[in-house]
Amino acid sequence: MNPAARSALIQAAGAENFSDGQEDRLLYSYDATGKSYPPEAVVRGVEVEQIARVLAAASQHRVPVVPRGAGSGQSGGSLPVDGGLVLNLAGMDRILKVDPADHVAVVQPGVITADLQRAAEARGLFYPPDPASVEFCTVGGNAAENSGGLRAVKYGVTRDYVLALQAVLPDGRVLRTGRSTMKTVVGYDLTRLLVGSEGTLAVMTELTLRLLPKPEAKATVSALFHELETAAQAVQAVLMSGITPAALEFIDSQSLGAVNAHAGLGLPPEAEAMVLIDVDGAPEVVAGQARRLARVLEEGGGRQVRLALDPAEAAELWRARRSMGPAMYNLAPNKLNEDVVVPLGRLAQAIRAIHAIGQRRGVLIPTFGHAGDGNLHVNVMYDASDPEQNRQAHQAVTDVFAQVLKVGGSLSGEHGVGNAKLGYVGAELDPVAMELMRGIKRLFDPAGILNPHKAVPTPDILA
Amino acid sequence: MNPAARSALIQAAGAENFSDGQEDRLLYSYDATGKSYPPEAVVRGVEVEQIARVLAAASQHRVPVVPRGAGSGQSGGSLPVDGGLVLNLAGMDRILKVDPADHVAVVQPGVITADLQRAAEARGLFYPPDPASVEFCTVGGNAAENSGGLRAVKYGVTRDYVLALQAVLPDGRVLRTGRSTMKTVVGYDLTRLLVGSEGTLAVMTELTLRLLPKPEAKATVSALFHELETAAQAVQAVLMSGITPAALEFIDSQSLGAVNAHAGLGLPPEAEAMVLIDVDGAPEVVAGQARRLARVLEEGGGRQVRLALDPAEAAELWRARRSMGPAMYNLAPNKLNEDVVVPLGRLAQAIRAIHAIGQRRGVLIPTFGHAGDGNLHVNVMYDASDPEQNRQAHQAVTDVFAQVLKVGGSLSGEHGVGNAKLGYVGAELDPVAMELMRGIKRLFDPAGILNPHKAVPTPDILA
């Protein structure tokens, strides 16, 4: 970083919030993808006016700025791929308000999602988005990536809970979008344009979130299936039952094999799929709903259909799903983890095609995920130390993407594009739509400093 | 219209789809607001390539284009306030697909919303958005205005059901946004930027919509309250019950008075509010949920709590709410109808303040609406032939808007800004956000031909 830029940034940030020491540069070079791009410096964001000053200085000196929450993203969204500045927002972690009458919370971006959930629950309320990283990811990061989670099938994704934002533009202007109301149709929907924009348009400094009443009770149902197609049909039957499950998960044979070996679940080897369902709501109705869905699964060919009405039994049924992460590494030492989405009716077809790709490429591709919204976690397992397997594994990912697009699916349901999928999104996005996206990027960030080379390919990348 | 523009438009549209006859110019000068702005010509949209040609010609000749569905909007969104061309999309009314496996429908913009609902129901599916005009409004108009309705409290608004769009830009380029999947986080969310943009950014030519499973059963609960504040507290208790109602409506004393006189409902004159609730879902659970909510209302001070488990009884309970439109005119011959939103906890306070404004201005302001999401329909009743009352009534609307903004509310929850509220939105929107909105408008519509003077104030209006 040139000395003029460095001294402007130190002045803008406050010296105590600026570091370009070796340690910080290493620490903030990583995210959950395991890749490393050392930034030139790290600034700790402490309040909106300071962030405005930092961004204005960075714009003036053309220093890239990468906003960062917990760095738990799965698509490299917080990697400083162009160097520059990491703007660390993890310290802005105050829950400013939980209002039970208005059903809203106002929080800073660095609040850990699970902390918000607990604060809401203490007032009888509920913040539904629940990415797997809920205990360490931040609300700001969730909003930047539009994160989902298990409960999306019933409750939607982060976008559906962000009512209003305070954010800072790259030139230092502060803006407010939305209202603290459940509805508004005044003006263009900038709130939902910023949600999911992966920190490329503005830096969120305050979020107003919708809260729901807390469901009082929960029940879980699980079933095994001897045939993938039967399981997919049972998923459709559950969706058509008139009861909306709070989670509707699907685990394929390869994932079951891995988790069976890892956690000793004693599952029958002939099982081709497991379906896991949560229902939640008022105590009087939850047990009846769970029994009805158990019947739907049984009538749909489910074996070993099990029902859990208390938390301990439910945890037991969820053990297979929860052990999935570590269990995968029983199959191979390395993993390429993609979260594609297919139309709801294409579940079985997509998984069969993914397995065929694995066979062709000589790798296992255990696949599980949110059957209720067609969002599949595809895990290409391989040994990176074997150059040929390495090549085949990466080729398998490209094959999976091609297959997903062929059936009308999308390359990401909840992880985002980041830099990981940037080279692929041109195959999904309409060229005119992409031109408009680039125009929006230029409108918000004419200097192009904010999280460059993320979310939307810019012409120099396409070239 | 100058002859060159006229002949270019005729060539683009096809002569059989172009009219500048007196009758058509009168017919398409109106919408549901009752205001009249005659366009210079009307073009019948028939397919995407023709619309692309028409828009390109209009851009070239700087002719304003106002897309129009059924003209049932409440904010003047389809009024050709600058003259130019009305682009009538009502004839593009084909339901192209209802897919029960993928849970999506693909429709043209001119499809009547209730027709889509019936087509979905015939396949066991459900399209939730239900504006009061559902039997004559169009899906394209609903998407342009991001319409809501009674069921928004449980099911959300039109925005939550639009998965993907085909649309034409003012320069004639065709774009596709979104995917036919329940989730996607690839690229900026242009779909939700276009939804609610009131036809000012692009003309929607095809919509891919999310469908839900059809709830099999429904039940209704109603209660009267002798005090507004008690009723508002009961609404909060319902929202916190763990059961999400499919409708949660509120009717104030002045509305009850009007409807009582009009429909002879025999309501006790001391009633200050009525609360009406629908629950829907699986048959086994709906009756239990309705009974539980009846208990919640009773324990919250509700009188004459009634429960209806069959459609005929339910219709009887809904009679007061459904008679509201015509009943209002028992109070005065003219109505200014505004759909403001307040934070959920401000319901009683807002209605008290609105009544006080009415008293001060010498007009009745019956108020009812969607208590479950804070969206109130405020009806300023007055006699337009009395100049002083006319003035006071319009002043009352301004007072109501000021009051709504003071408690953190929004000037429109489902009707949109159109041209009706254009002069007011500067008081709600953040100035930096408004600048960005104007930038987005310029990006999509550099010639400024598409539905000018709607949704977002442009500098010449503010000046």
Provide the descriptors you would attach to this structure in a database record.
463 residues; 5 domains; alpha+beta; Uridine Diphospho-n-acetylenolpyruvylglucosamine Reductase, domain 3; homodimer; 5-stranded antiparallel sheet; Uridine Diphospho-n-acetylenolpyruvylglucosamine Reductase, domain 2; 7-stranded antiparallel sheet; Alpha-Beta Plaits; 17 helices
Q: Total helix count of chain A?
A: 17
Radius of gyration of chain A: 23 Å
Mean pLDDT of chain A: 95
- Euclidean distance between termini CA atoms of chain A: 27 Å
Domains of chain A, number? 5
Overall SS class of chain A: alpha+beta
Give the oligomeric state of the chains in this entry, treating copies of one chain as homo and distinct chains as hetero. homodimer
Largest interface: A-B, 96 and 96 residues
Report the major sheet of chain A: 7 strands, antiparallel
What is the CATH topology descriptor of the largest domain in chain A? Uridine Diphospho-n-acetylenolpyruvylglucosamine Reductase, domain 3
Number of beta-strand segments of chain A: 18
Strand order of the largest sheet of chain A: 15-12-14-13-17-18-16
Pfam family, one (chains A, B): FAD-oxidase_C
Domain FAD-binding PCMH-type (chains A, B): 35-214
Cofactor (chains A, B): FAD
Family (chains A, B): Belongs to the FAD-binding oxidoreductase/transferase type 4 family.
